[in-house]
Amino acid sequence: MTSAAQTNIDTLKKALGETFRLYVQTHGYHWNVEGPNFRQLHNVFEEQYRNLWNALDEIAERIRILGAHAPGSVADLMALAGEEAAPAQSADDMTAKLIDAHEALAATLRDGIAAAGEAGDEVSAGLLTDRLEWHEKELWMMKACKR
Ligand SMILES: [Fe+2]
Questions:
Q1: How far apart are the CA of 44 and the centre of ligand 1, in A?
Q2: What's the total number of domains in the chain?
Q3: Å from CA of 65 to ligand 1 middle
Q4: Which residue of 32, 42, 112, 119 pairs with 11 in a disulfide if CB–CB is 3.0 to 4.6 A?
């Protein structure tokens, strides 16, 4: 395997780990959010965690298609995911922490799109571009709520 192909797989694994961590974080906020915007946020977080859950399968199976094993334990996924956010203190804090996590993941996805391009892997570049499009739209909507 070339180093470009390895970097491509490594970045896909990092995107998988970060997506897993954000999935757990978002589902937890869906359960625990409180306050006057409860119903709206409870529903938004559900839409987000469902999207993230489906993305996990797509990214992991792309890793398999490229001939590598997908990280398949909580420990392996969390080791790829970076630092866990501190517990959120309020609904506004949950939104702020999600904005940070989506921005970090968007940066990983941009690295992944570049790595896929270097490796000549248009399909992974397309998958990661679709993921980035979704995260950018969620970021816009979450930031618009804070103004
Ligand atoms: Fe629920």
A1: 11
A2: 1
A3: 32
A4: 112
Determine the structural domain holding residue 22 and report its residue range: 3-145
**Residue 13: which CATH number?**
1.20.1260.10
CA distance 24 to 98: 11
Quote the ligand 1 centre to 42 CA distance (angstroms): 8
Which among 125, 137, 134, 139 is positioned nearest to 11, based on CA atoms? Answer: 125
The contacts found for 106-110 with CB under 8 angstroms, 24 or more apart, are: 106/132, 106/135, 106/136, 106/139, 108/11, 108/14, 108/15, 108/18, 109/15, 109/135
Using CA atoms, how far residue 81 sits from 23, 43, 104, in Å, is 11, 25, 10
